Amino acid sequence: MSLSRTGKLIKRMKFKKRDGYDTGPNGTRIDKYKVMITPWFAYKQKYLEEIKREDSAYKNTVNIIIRQKQKEEIQPDWIAEINGIDYNIEEINPDVENEDFMVLILKAVS
User: Fold this and answer.
1) Which pLDDT score is estimated for 6?
2) How far apart are CA 37 and CA 102, in angstroms?
3) Residue 107 pLDDT more than 60?
């Protein structure tokens, strides 16, 4: 894994789980969320070659690194929130060798 020091994990984020819904003014459904964990994270740098090779499925994505061992195991149906922006979890790439850090690919919710 490209991260060797935990001192680089300096940003905070939230992982939220859908927890029912409320009914809006016109009968619209408004999802409610419950915050599951708030881990520290770092952005994983994307290189120009990677950006050029990306297909349209990976546009508007960010790669982040977090500690693999959290209070709750991260689930693919959770929503990640960074600086008030919600992201769907596209991929979870665990570190199978050392179980130190994992890389998550997140796509902005549109």
Assistant:
1) 62
2) 15
3) yes
Rounded Cα gap, residues 59 and 52, in angstroms: 11
- What pLDDT is stored for residue 25 in this prediction? 86
Q: Cα–Cα distance between 60 and 85 in angstroms, integer?
A: 12
What is the per-residue pLDDT for 4? Answer: 53
Please give the Cα distance from 58 to 36 (Å, whole number): 26
Q: Please report the beta strands in the chain, taking only residues with DSSP state E, as ranges in sequence order.
A: 11-12, 14-23, 29-37, 40-43, 61-67, 79-82, 85-93, 101-108
Q: Under a CB-based contact definition with an 8 Å cutoff, are residues 70 and 48 in contact?
A: no
**DSSP letter at 68?**
S
Cα gap 16→80, rounded to integer Å: 6
